[in-house]
Amino acid sequence: MERKPLKEYEFWLLVGSQFLYGIETLEKVAQHAVIIAEGLNTAKQIPCNVVYKATMKTPEEIEKWIKEANYDDSCAGIITWMHTFSPSKMWINGLNLLQKPYCHLHTQFNRNIPDQGIDMDFMNLNQSAHGDREHGFIAARMRLGRKIVVGYWEDEDVQSELGKWMRSAIGAIESKNLKVVRFGDNMRNVAVTEGDKVGVQMQLGWQVNTWGVGDLIKEIDNVTESDVDEQVASYRKLYDFATDNLDSIRYQAKEEIAMRRFLDREGAMAFTNTFEDLQELKQLPGLASQNMMALGYGYGGEGDWKVSAMTALIKRMTEGMGGGTAFMEDYTYDLEKGKELSLGAHMLEVCPSLSADRARIEVHKLGIGGKEPPARLVFEGHSGNAVVASLVDMGGRLRLIVQDIEAVKPKYKMPNLPVARIMWRPEPDLISGAHMWILAGGAHHTVLSFDADATMLEDWCEIMGIEFVHIGKESTVAGMKQQLFLSDLAWKLR
Fold first, then answer.
1. 233 burial class (0-12, 13-18, 19+ CB within 10 angstroms)?
2. Which of 279, 298, 413, 415 lies 20 to 30 A from 423 at CA?
């Protein structure tokens, strides 16, 4: 499925001023705004296009541009900045109408105060220090959700923070159009993979629908041998073949082609299946699902549509960053005292974007599901800082739980474990980290990402209006208990 490049998304820079200071000052405001927009567009941390639209001088002008932002599909959000003093009552009607993500950039055009050049003309032009405080008040008074970025616009940390928020905003915009195809239902009797699909569509926009496995089988029957030849050739370019069982690889190619055609026809970027509902499929999709994830599709095992959708969204939010994002599961622990690690894997379906080296295709008996041995990608994950994220339905509200982790080189070779795997140390440590994860109701399925971080995902939660729980280096069990208690109270009051 063709997806718009991130750079084609626009963030509109709406600059605040007023007529009080004269035409010459307004012309300089516009000139400075253009320079800032162009400067941000050349920064490597900025993934999208910053477009200066206008200097806001009246309530009518503000309302006009916010209405246009709402209805322009290329606009993913607005960035406001008050170059001069802009009386914030002017912004009320416009901000009341705003339906796009909103960032308040508190900066100023000049880095330093010009010792000899500062006079009252300079002061009238460069009033961000108090103009942005006026603007901040009205957003606070109106209880508006927004991102606040503070600092000099040319600084790398400011550009990085702004760029991450842009990615969160893209996730929010694309969330409203996300479709998930479920091939069959959930694994029987599992609680955490369930959820309120109607409520999720109302809040997040996800369209989650089910097709029978028989519908997928019909699509597989339409795949030609030449289609399979072409897909297998692409596998050879990407992966090492460590098996002589080409029949299994060819069947996985058939499954992938059929699933991609099915999803593309439906306009979907995420899918699920379960080994309990394979009907006449010869194999559980393994290599097929893994290669689709490498192409940007989201996947959830055992019918877990929430993790499937989150995988697709986080992949989209982090597009071009290169660290890797995948469907994941805490599978088993290594509990050496003081050096505890988690081994993450799944039966088959871990995205090769996490691989430390070139992945290899192997064929082994699955031991569950009662079908033919499926081809799958086997690899070790690379090391580095990452997060695992779990979206759960708490009944009446959604909660995203994010934990910081440090992925490490696996300490064992594990020659008899023919699956993709990655080992990590959870923050603050496995024992207290797992305690807090369980307290918060985190699922056994997660999205693991080396590119997204807690700030990016928190921004996404704030835009979407859902609860965010972060487990990091400074987190404690006692603090988590208090946070969850207060959060329950706060969300009930909402």
1. exposed
2. 298
Report pLDDT digits (tens) over 115-141.
998 999 898 889 999 999 999 999 999
Summary count for the chain: helices (H), strands (E): 15, 19
pLDDT band for 1, please (50, 70, 90 cuts).
Answer: low
Question: Can you state the percent helix, strand and coil of the chain, rounding each to 5?
Answer: 40, 25, 35
What was the pLDDT predicted at 124? 86
Question: Amino acid letter at 299?
Answer: Y
Per-residue pLDDT band for 34 (boundaries 50, 70, 90) equals: very high
Separation between Cα atoms, residue 29 and residue 55, nearest integer Å:
7
Strands 270-272 and 341-345: unpaired
Amino acid sitting at position 453: D
> Strand, coil or helix: what is 446?
strand
pLDDT (tens digit, 9 = 90+) per residue, 308-357?
A: 999 999 999 999 999 999 999 999 999 999 999 999 999 899 999 999 99
Is-contact 272 300, C-beta < 8 A? yes
CATH match for 6-175 among 3.30.930.10, 3.30.1060.10, 3.40.50.10940, 1.50.10.10: 3.40.50.10940
Report the binding-site residues for Mn(2+).
302, 329, 346, 445
Give how far Cα 386 sits from Cα of 172, 379, 410, 412, Å.
21, 18, 15, 21
What is the band of 2 on the pLDDT scale with cuts at 50, 70, 90?
confident
- pTM for this one? 0.95
Query: Residue 16 — φ and ψ, nearest 5°?
Result: -90, 135
User: How many other β-carbons are positioned within 10 Å of the β-carbon of residue 204?
Assistant: 21
**d(C-alpha 406, C-alpha 314), whole Å:** 19
Gyration radius from the chain CA atoms: 25
- H helical segments located in 180-224: 197-204, 213-221
Domain parsing of the chain, residue ranges? 6-175, 179-493
Phi-psi label, residue 279: left if phi above 0, alpha if psi -120 to 50, beta otherwise: left
Cα(10)–Cα(77) distance, rounded to whole angstroms?
A: 7
Binding-site annotation: residue ranges: 302, 329, 346, 445
